[in-house]
Design a protein that fits this description.
By secondary structure, the protein is of the alpha/beta class. It folds into two domains: 8-143, Creatinase/prolidase N-terminal domain (Creatine Amidinohydrolase, Chain A, domain 1), CATH 3.40.350.10; 145-384, Creatine Amidinohydrolase. It has helices at residues 14-21, 49-52, 74-86, 118-126, 136-144, 148-169, 178-190, 261-279, 287-300, and strands at residues 8-11, 31-35, 40-45, 59-63, 94-98, 129-134, 202-210, 234-243, 246-247, 250-256, 341-344, 347-350, 354-357, 360-365, 368-371, 383-384. The strands form four sheets. Strands 4-3-2-1-5-6 form a six-stranded mixed beta sheet, sandwiched between helices. β12 and β13 (354-357) form a beta hairpin. The longest helix has 22 residues, at 148-169. The N and C termini lie far apart (59 Å).
């Protein structure tokens, strides 16, 4: 904030409110205000106050989104409370950073409120403003470099995913549809609060793509279909789990029955690329070099044209965001730093036959890469027998 000459930063996107205050808004109406002297204030709907108290804000004020006596919009409901909150800061005109650019925001609920361009209007109406400027790059920078507290939260989200992947694996069977198979992986995510009492909110998403459909997983999103899982199929399962707003991005590809020569060659190539990528991770390494390490292995083994996306991207505050730092991309100019968390996802997609992706999560430490998903890490553990 000092570098940008901001007196305040105002955040309304849930991932940035979480970054600043430790509170993850449920429906996206909460607002966080951070001052250059270290004060954190929150304005939250009344029914989310208990969640806000779990964070580290110095001040929490609430607002009532509506009532039977008053039909109003969120912007109208928050205007006066935000003006009152602003009075707790300097009476002099201040320079304010806010969210102005495009981004990818993980879903915090079934429907989300996004202030969009109205947030700038609200700021100008409720604060004594000297200047308003986009703070997106600074917030992106901070989200990319996790604290020890944030990494521990991500570890918990990974353990939730581990539980779901193991339970789902035990229930994979031929004759079940991809949709039904995905549901067996999703259910443990929804029920994970039973086994993780330290977490307030946990859940996630799961998709299954089998046989020739698994080759379609190179797209920007996964999609389960009514297709039946058949003997000899590759079954690609993608999971995004979360714990209190901290996300994962994990994929495992199972083989129905012992892999034949072709499938085994794909497993061998992907796991060799994975090993090469992890070997290239250390503080100061170029993100592009990690991509090159994985890509060169797949090229050498004849699968180069079938690796159709980058080797990874930042994860933690976001789930599926190709622009999240660091980007393990052939053209990336980013350099790895301690605390960065990202996925490593070498893959092979052969149209009309099948796809195989193994997506892990890792963080950069002084010693190199720390694997945050140390489960189902051997091709032999991914075979569904019987």
């Amino acid at each position: 904030m000092r570098e940008n000459l901001w007196d305040l930063v105002v955040c309304a996107l849930p991932m940035n409110v979480l970054l600043v205050s430790g509170y993850w808004p449920v429906i996206g109406t909460g607002v966080a205000v951070a001052s250059s002297d270290g004060k954190i204030s929150l304005l939250v709907p009344e029914d989310e106050e208990d969640l806000a108290q779990r964070g580290w804000a110095d001040e929490i004020q609430t607002f009532k989104a509506g009532s039977l006596e008053d039909l109003t919009t969120t912007v109208e409901a928050i205007r006066c409370p935000l003006r009152a909150l602003s009075q707790g800061f300097s009476a002099k005109p201040v320079r304010i950073g806010f969210e102005a650019l495009e981004t990818s925001e993980p879903a915090s609920y079934a429907a989300m409120h996004l202030y969009g361009g109205t947030m700038r209007t609200l700021i100008e109406e409720t604060f004594s403003v000297l200047g308003v400027a986009p703070a997106d790059e600074a917030l992106d920078y901070l989200r990319a470099r996790k604290t020890a507290f944030e990494i521990e939260k991500i570890r918990t989200a990974c353990r939730i995913a581990e539980r779901a992947l193991q339970r789902g694996f035990e229930q994979i069977k031929t004759g079940a549809s991809e949709v039904e198979t995905a549901a067996t992986f999703r259910q443990p995510l929804s029920a994970s609060l039973v086994d993780f009492p330290e977490v307030s909110r946990a859940d996630g998403f799961a998709w299954c793509m089998s046989g020739a459909n698994s080759a379609l997983a190179s797209a920007a999103y996964a999609r389960s279909r009514p297709k039946w899982v058949a003997p000899g199929d590759l079954v690609l399962v993608h999971i995004n789990s979360y714990a209190d707003g901290y996300w994962t991005d994990i994929t495992r590809t199972y083989s129905i029955g012992k892999p034949d020569e072709r499938r085994q060659a794909m497993y061998d190539a992907v796991f060799a690329a994975r090993e090469a990528a992890f070997g290239a991770i250390h503080p100061g390494a170029k993100a592009a070099d990690v991509d090159t390490a994985a890509r060169d292995v797949l090229k050498t083994r004849g699968f180069g044209p079938h690796f159709k996306h980058s080797t990874g991207h930042g994860v933690g505050f976001s789930a599926i965001a190709a622009d999240a730092q660091p980007r393990l991309h052939p053209k990336s100019e980013e350099v790895l730093e301690i605390g960065m968390v990202f996925n490593v996802e070498p893959a092979i997609y052969i149209e009309g036959y099948g796809g195989l992706r193994h997506c892990d999560m890792a963080t950069v430490t002084e010693a190199g890469a720390e694997l945050l998903t140390p489960f189902q890490c051997d091709a032999g553990e991914l075979v569904v027998n019987g």
